[in-house]
Design goal:
By secondary structure, the chain is mainly α. Helix content is 64%, strand content 0%.
């Protein structure tokens, strides 16, 4: 039988997916850090970060759907919403890191701000990779194969006929597995 994964584009392994995640997400993240720094010249930093995070999340979700996790298609609305949830957590983490930096240093330089921001983004990104791979873009949610009933907590396992437990005869071999 052909699996649902073999009908579409094959899902990359964890290492390949992580490398693609770093390339796509990291590239968007680095561009975003410079965009936040530039926009923060006109807006409060927290507002600039929120705007850039929203735009970069839309872009990164599309890249992850098409390239990182091997879906080869546009992201669905469900994937965008779930990705936005993980991005919101990353936003909170970067804001907390920057607020902590400004509590510890009265006037941190741009290089220190970038270092703290990118470090917090990297940690949040590792957590996002896990969420995106295991939840948002997980492929095990595919429909069951044609001809095979779905098994779940509500579906009882098939019971072998009473003669299947006897050691003699071909019926014993049919239900052994």
């Amino acid at each position: 039988m052909e699996s649902s994964q073999s009908q579409g584009q094959a899902a990359p392994g964890a290492f390949a997916a992580f490398a693609r995640f770093v390339l796509c997400g990291g590239g968007v993240g680095i561009a975003s850090s410079f965009a936040v720094a530039g926009l923060a010249a006109w807006l409060p930093w927290i507002v600039a970060n929120a705007l850039i995070t929203a735009g970069s999340t839309l872009l990164a979700t599309e890249l992850h759907a098409r390239f990182t996790f091997g879906a080869g298609a546009r992201a669905t609305w469900r994937q965008h919403v779930q990705s936005a949830g993980s991005a919101a957590a990353a936003y909170v983490a970067t804001c907390a890191a920057m607020l902590m930096l400004h509590q510890l240093a009265a006037a941190p330089g741009a290089m220190l701000e970038q270092t703290v921001y990118l470090s917090a983004s990297a940690l949040a990104g590792a957590a996002r990779f896990a969420v995106l791979r295991l939840v948002v873009f997980a492929r095990d949610r595919a429909q069951p194969s044609v001809g095979r009933p779905a098994e779940g907590p509500h579906t009882p396992a098939p019971t072998p006929p009473p003669h299947a437990s006897t050691p003699a005869g071909p019926a014993a071999l049919c239900y052994a597995a």
